[in-house]
Protein: CopG family transcriptional regulator
Organism: Furfurilactobacillus siliginis
Amino acid sequence: MEIIKVSVTDAEHILLQNAAQRKGLTISEFIRQSALETVEEASDLLAFKKAEQEFKRDPVTYSTAEVKRQLNL
């Protein structure tokens, strides 16, 4: 496991400590969780933008009934 050191001001430390306590986490757990959620949200946003661009190029949609019929369900 890698260790990442982050420098924060005293005020930021208190803010992080309070936020972590409200969630029942250590500061380290809180920062790790928050960072990973941010990365996941950014990834989701990129995927959405890509799908949106593809849809704008070829705006074809299918109803649930059409999909079931095409898949013989």
